[in-house]
Amino acid sequence: MCGIGGYFLRPGGTVPTDALEKMKSELAHRGPNGSGQFTDSTVGFVHTRLSIVDLANGAQPFIAPAADGGKVLVANGEIYNHAMLRQSHCAGYNFSSNSDCETLLALWARHGTAALKQLRGMYAAALYDPGKNEGLLIRDQFGIKPLYVCETKDGLFFASEITALRAIGLVDMAPDPLHAACIIDRQFAPDDLPAFSTIRRVAPGEMLVIRDGQIAETYIDAPLEEGMTDPATPTIDRFEAELHNSVATHLMADVPLGLFFSGGVDSTAILAALTDLRSRDGDEEPILTYNVRFGSGENEEASLAASLAAAEGADFVDVPYGKADFLADAGLAALACDDAVADYAILPTLHLARRAAKDVKVVLSGEGGDEFFAGYGRYRAGLRAIGAKFPTRPGPAMRAELFADDVTRRLAARYDLAGASMPGLLQRLTDQHSSLAALQRHDIDDWLPNDLLIKLDRCLMRHGLEGRTPFVDRQMSYYGFHLPLAAKIGRGGGKNLVKSWLSRRLPACQPFAKKRGFTVPVGSWIAEESHTLAPLVAKQNGVAELIRADKARSVIASADGRGGLLAWRLLFYALWHQIHCCGASAEQPVADILAARG
Known about the structure:
Layout: E1 2-9, H1 19-26, E2 35-39, E3 43-49, E4 62-63, E5 72-79, H2 82-89, H3 100-111, E6 121-129, E7 134-139, E8 148-151, E9 155-159, H4 162-166, H5 177-186, E10 199-201, E11 206-211, E12 214-220, H6 236-249, E13 257-260, H7 265-281, E14 288-294, H8 300-311, E15 315-321, H9 323-336, H10 346-356, E16 362-364, H11 369-373, H12 377-382, H13 396-399, H14 405-419, H15 425-430, H16 432-461, E17 466-468, H17 474-481, H18 485-488, H19 496-505, H20 522-528, H21 530-539, H22 541-544, H23 549-557, H24 564-580, H25 590-595
Parallel strand pairs: 13-14, 13-16, 14-15, 16-17
Antiparallel strand pairs: 1-3, 1-9, 2-3, 4-5, 5-6, 6-7, 7-11, 8-9, 8-10, 11-12
Helix pairs in contact: 2-3, 5-14, 5-24, 6-7, 6-19, 7-19, 9-10, 9-24, 10-16, 20-24, 21-23, 23-24
């Protein structure tokens, strides 16, 4: 896992002073184990390395042998099927390492862009062919790893994080008001609505062909749309085989691994699969699991997680998190999420990552289980004839009429446009399978890459930790998404097949019990400090541009209870704007960040 950045110049284009060095500095937390650069007259690449596979020889950039055109690669990610690809597609290639990422270069050098659809993994990569003066930028199919581009009169610049592009002066300081409204109302922004007008995310599965410093061609790798060659058999045994295969694949590493473990269905399924695989292989080393506990006392969720970990022979690391941690670290969470995501789960995720990084370099996590196996209650609500709740409906800020009139109109228009893609009444009544697939696909294309996976990547990489998601995988995800309706939604709600396997494999986890959810008591903490925070949030520049001061104060003051989510989003955006747009230091308490003047 790493950070990458660089540029492809147009004819006559120039590079900002010390561009690669500045990028390297901003990406150092993503790759604390080393760095490398490549430059020629029109191209520059930089790489910061977190050593996971082939610790001795895996430094980048990789340069292909002259016989294969001297092509160049920098990559961030893991190619889980690299050994198979080397054997089947790269015979005779003179590899310089056992790195999985070098396999990507060999595959491209030997077979071109079409062969890249065979990659199974998570990755963002830049490739360059000096013979053709042609480049390539690619991102994995589900957007696990980030990649951003900025087109200028001088050429195309790219990086793993927005801050690396801003460091070389390519991005305006003022964010788009509609983007800000999305963060406050729905907690994240869609792919086509960047925070800064000159920058965009490379979409999941997108491939950009670069010629003369410009995007010449664009392709999308969409594995969920491929024809089925092997039906998604909805049996417990078939699910177990698919889960074991995915988890085993995600264990590829030459460093210690752990598991973020809440005791919920998804992380428990991964723990059980890990135990099965280690037992099969005779590995007696206990699995390290990390669980966040809110407050100072015992709670039901943490107790259940601890008992499940003990039952599976895993080591359980209890990581408490309280109001003092929140007040000290909320700014660091906003700093980490340079691509703004106001998901309150960034708080415990960042905290867990800090603790886990003391022991391991890789953690598995359960993201994707709800999206691909239909776990959310909103899916079941979305299939109802009356009262369907779609993810495209206005959020709490719109309902509270917080925004200025012009922002309200623009945001409402976007919701109307997005809502048109939701299944209509006739479809919900006559074809619930395709209706459910449409709801899942919306989340897979929007919520998953633009909220959950940004959160995981930024919080973990801030502490030099790699996150892996066995439920978000070219093979596992395809299997789950294409299951029949009854395997997804059944007597215990969503994820019916996953829960059925767990009820057989580890019944103590009570998979069919009512979902406990994952709630951070952030509303209560904000309410307790509202006398200090309310006036500071109301006066913050980014908030004041969007929301009347009296409205902002009332949101913070009513944070306890149902208003907690909106209060957190408003506070997060104020912190994010202070840090990323006004230059405030994140290394200070929340109130001090808000009081700082840029």
